[in-house]
Amino acid sequence: MLDSAPTLERLRPIFADPNIAKLNQNIKYDLLVLRGRGVEVHGVSGDPMVADYLLHAGERTHNLEELARRYLNHPMVPIEDLIGKKSKKQPQLRMDQVAVDRVAAYAGEDADAAWRLCLHLESRLEGPPLRTLYDELEIPLIEVLAELEYNGIRLDKKLLKRVGDDMGRRLEQIEKEIYVLAGRPFNIGSLPQLRKVLFEELKLPIQGKTGVTGAPSTDQETLEKLAALGLPGSELPRKILEQRQTAKLKSTYVDALPEMVNPATRRIHASFNQTVAATGRLSSSDPNLQNIPVRSEQGREIRQAFLPEEGWRLLTADYSQIELRLLAHFTDDEALQRAFAEDHDVHSLVAAQIFGVEEGLVTPEMRRMAKTVNFGVIYGMSGHGLAVRLGISRDEANRFIEAYFARYPKVLDYQAKLLEECMRTGYVSTILGRRRAIAGVRSKSTYQQRNQPEREAINMEIQGSAADLIKLAMLHIHQRLRRDGLRSRMLMQIHDELVFEAPPGELKQLAALVKEEMTTPLEKELSLRTPLKVELAAGPNWLDVEEIVEGEG
DNA sequence: ATATTCACG
DNA sequence: ACGTACGTGAATATC
Known about the structure:
By secondary structure, the chain is an alpha+beta fold. It contains 23 helices and 15 strands. The chain has 4 domains: 5-125, Nucleotidyltransferase, domain 5; 157-259, Taq DNA Polymerase, Chain T, domain 4, CATH 1.20.1060; 274-321 and 467-547, Alpha-Beta Plaits; 323-463, DNA polymerase, domain 1 (Orthogonal Bundle), CATH 1.10.150.
């Protein structure tokens, strides 16, 4: 089998030859396994999983079993038949513990299905834009993602141990205080028990119900309302909030991350999934590196544990306001475009417009509200949704939206046109022609009464186009790093941010290259009507990065 | 397996 | 009358 070293050596030149096409289901996995054995693969030409993702983004899975059933009408032999029950926890049999003839039959069926599915699905991509997206973006990106996963990132286990011990002590303390306030001990993590304490024993007023079962909510928003009531028993929700935050950070990050460090590389190797998000974004798992805490002070400590290679520096490159810039591009609104062209503060500008004041008189509160409105526009906001987030009445929220659309009529026209096209064709397209099918869009609905599909449609073009842009940038950066012979490595993508590590002396060159590839070529290639802006920062860990100002140092 | 909550963009 | 902003992944408890 492939496992034997002589066979691998014989295949090495074939794998290395970019002119010999290779395809497989989830071929990124093969790249990683082979790279782990020192074998480089070039010439990746296809992957049915990725082809199906471009054809049907938003399907629950694009796994081989599903694809074979759907397109080949062929039920695959379940892998459980070979290696035992499928389970994330339970250790499975390995292939080398299974009889060779059974493995061969299974592997043969897999390879055959992948090959036939690739032919079939690729023919369905039918030229531009999907086939171009496949051949020139998603397939080449596989190699880049494999490299991100292979590179991994170093973690400061000692720091997390200290933080975890502190949190453990803090939790013991808070939990004692909670039991006193509740009048008895109970399992704070159990929603039924917590509801009983809050709403039955302490008789606090129910603030809202959960979506599916209609049970009383106990989420952050609810607990904050309860804490603000000033009733007897209002101390408790405050403490619960504190306990929740600390318990969440400890279990999800501080305790879990050190367990994920690969002892051989002493780094964390997450997955960057290419076929999950309906909009074209990547997702990350095992662990998820795209939701590492940053907003709370307590959470930010965790970022400090993400380190570059010893003696190297971490570099972060963030797109500034990429979604609003794309809104300006798509709507062709001149005021928004000018704001970005002149690098103005777009939240302040919108605040001035919707509050009807000079930009110099915009207060931080007005700016904060305008920022919420700006995000709302990208999400297809309703009056109600905006009201909840701003803590104002629905009427007031509607007046804000009216004021916004009165000043930015092109945004309203743009959204109406997008919905109309979605209704006609059944899908929404991004800047590179990526498609997401959306059913349930109605003709001329107003923003007050938009339904879920209509909001999804409105969000797709912008969120998906931002995903297109950063994927393209990753591809270009990867090629430049090779061409220019840099040792720097790309480590992570967090939707509008890329993270790199640079060896001593290479930071400036890397920073310049990254900034360039994330902006100018994309603006030109895609004829963007708004410039892109990238903010660079570097430091000894992911928290303590300092902005790199051009022409400095 | 499902529901809830909460971490991120 | 009601549920209401878009996209994710993980932990926990309960069924």
